[in-house]
């Protein structure tokens, strides 16, 4: 699997030299030297302006199928996210390794069975689905339908799991649930905190491990119950508070390299606006020396998607990850060039990962990349709460969009196509 990624990454880089993308504004020869069009001067049609989808890949929330129409909205459209399957595998492995390494005390009631509970973020978000599958696969609790691991919560589908095995222990998923508010906001930390109290009441010392699709929910459960009970809790995102909690018994988390993603989100817009090769400052160094390597990300040309690679953060290495909001050193050099105006939204102002890690990183990179970014945060429930605030797309040079629901790309593109 890992080697496969390498091959894909390498061939993607090779392909790119053949398919260097100009911007929607002008070709590279016309804009070399930086005298780019726009600065919202009305010359470029909104439909031709650079567009980056990030964190939520336009896709069918039931089947996971990528919405290539949205990714091909214009020739300067891309997705920036991270490699969900590679990260999910790491998360599952991290939990399984922990169980093996702590075999002497993990089984709290000594019944030979390790019981875990699982907080699910959003059943229609492909990153969330991948994490649920990764954990079930590594712990042996996965059930397949066709060739796909079932990712339903046991709350709605009790047959979604089977008894698993790690080392000498049987493993059971005692419960899993999508952490969603009554109003529909997903990945909800408050709901996770309430749920762990209910699960504790129901399962007591059968719960040996707590797993979460992200740190926001993981930390809510840790602070509410598992820290006091000494039950290892695993999340995803490597938010600063979760990394610090590893010193207090949080089991571990996965860095999805938000420092690389936030850079890529703004960098591909910058490159398109400058009319230069999209790989400038990414696969090949820019004038300031910013450059990434294939350890940091891979690019999938067919999906027009950049995927940052993940790293496990555990008691062994967490001290290197204590501040999640530091720009990544290989791409943290100031560049020169015109200022451009970018409109950027996050789907939910209450999302821990986006709010405490991703946006603070973006705010540092926007300065390094000379972009003037307007940040909008939604309510996590309705697309219109966000799109209502895109009343004047002509006032911006480029757009970075994080949807409430992965199905809803057209709510945005229809505004830009007018
Ligand atoms: C993060 C979650 C976050 C979600 C929002 C995921 O990539 O891991 O923490 O809530 O994105 O879309």
Provide an overview of this structure:
The structure is a single chain. This protein is of the alpha/beta class and 418 residues long. Helices cover 34% and strands 19% of the residues. β9, α8 and β10 form a beta-alpha-beta unit. The model is unreliable at 1-38 (pLDDT under 50). Beta-D-glucopyranose binds next to α10.
Briefly say what this structure is:
With 418 residues, the protein is of the alpha/beta class.
Topology, pairings included?
Layout: H1 2-18, H2 28-31, E1 51-54, H3 68-71, E2 77-82, H4 84-101, E3 113-120, H5 126-139, E4 144-145, E5 148-149, E6 164-166, E7 169-178, H6 189-203, E8 207-212, H7 215-229, E9 233-234, H8 240-245, E10 250-255, H9 258-274, E11 297-300, E12 305-308, E13 311-313, E14 340-346, H10 352-368, E15 371-377, H11 383-387, E16 398-401, H12 409-417
Parallel strand pairs: 1-2, 1-16, 2-12, 3-7, 3-8, 8-9, 9-10, 14-15, 14-16
Antiparallel strand pairs: 4-5, 6-7, 10-13, 11-12
Helix pairs in contact: 4-5, 6-7, 9-10
Beta-D-glucopyranose binds next to helix 10.
């Amino acid at each position: 699997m890992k080697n496969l990624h390498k091959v894909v990454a390498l061939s993607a880089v090779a392909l790119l030299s053949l398919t260097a993308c100009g911007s929607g504004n002008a070709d590279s020869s016309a804009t070399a030297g930086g005298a780019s069009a726009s600065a919202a001067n009305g010359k470029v049609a909104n439909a031709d302006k650079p567009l980056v989808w990030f964190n939520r890949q336009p896709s069918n929330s039931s089947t996971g199928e990528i919405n290539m129409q949205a990714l091909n909205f214009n020739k300067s459209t891309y997705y920036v996210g991270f490699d969900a399957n590679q990260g999910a595998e790491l998360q599952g492995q991290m939990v399984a390794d922990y169980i093996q390494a702590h075999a002497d005390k993990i089984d709290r009631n000594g019944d030979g069975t390790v019981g875990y509970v699982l907080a699910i973020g959003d059943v229609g978000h492909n990153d969330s689905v991948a994490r649920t599958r990764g954990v079930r696969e590594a712990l042996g609790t996965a059930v397949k339908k066709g060739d796909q691991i079932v990712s339903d919560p046991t709350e709605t589908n009790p047959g979604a799991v089977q008894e698993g095995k790690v080392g000498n222990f049987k493993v059971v998923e005692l419960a899993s649930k999508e952490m969603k508010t009554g109003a529909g906001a997903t990945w909800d930390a408050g709901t996770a905190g309430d749920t762990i109290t209910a699960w504790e009441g129901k399962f007591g010392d059968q719960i040996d491990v707590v797993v979460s699709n992200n740190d926001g929910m993981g930390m809510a459960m840790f602070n509410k119950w598992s820290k006091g009970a000494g039950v290892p809790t695993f999340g995803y995102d490597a938010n600063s508070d979760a990394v610090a909690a590893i010193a207090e018994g949080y089991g571990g988390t996965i860095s999805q390299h938000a420092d690389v993603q936030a850079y890529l989100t703004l960098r591909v817009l910058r490159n398109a606006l400058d009319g230069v090769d999209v790989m400038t400052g990414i696969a090949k160094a820019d004038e300031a020396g910013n450059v990434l390597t294939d350890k940091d990300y891979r690019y999938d040309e067919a999906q027009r998607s950049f995927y940052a690679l993940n790293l496990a953060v555990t008691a062994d290495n967490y001290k290197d990850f204590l501040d999640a909001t530091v720009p990544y050193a290989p791409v943290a050099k100031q560049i020169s060039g015109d200022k451009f105006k970018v409109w950027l939204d996050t789907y939910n102002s209450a999302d821990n990962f986006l709010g405490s890690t991703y946006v603070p990183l973006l705010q540092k990179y926007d300065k390094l990349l000379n972009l003037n970014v307007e940040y909008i945060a939604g309510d996590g429930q309705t697309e219109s709460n966000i799109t209502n605030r895109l009343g004047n797309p002509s006032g911006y040079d480029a757009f970075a969009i994080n949807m409430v629901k992965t199905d809803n790309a057209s709510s945005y593109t229809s505004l830009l196509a007018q």
